[in-house]
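Students often ask why we bother encoding 3D structure as a string. The short answer is that it lets us treat folding as translation between two languages. Here is a chain of 91 residues written in the first language.
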Amino acid sequence: MNWFPPLASTCQEMARLLSDAMDHRLPWHARIRMHVHLGMCQVCKSYQRQLVLLRHLLRRTPHSEAEPTVQPQLSAEAKERIRRALDSSHS
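And here it is in the second language, the structure alphabet:
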């Protein structure tokens, strides 16, 4: 029986581990697998940098800026056209 997980990981597994590592500390064997894989795979290393950058940018953005400041509204003319169309459909 093998007590240690394989060191080689697929990029799909690595994407999950990288995401999990953003939320909590991974077990030592998962951290070693990440380190080994990131040492060999530039695509996953780039993905890790993108995750870190995205997290950094989202933390810098105040929540009030993330919400739209202008609510979409219909013009008075559009509201009147809709009202007339509804009234004529009931006749």
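Translate back mentally: The mean pLDDT is 83. Keep this in mind for the problem set.
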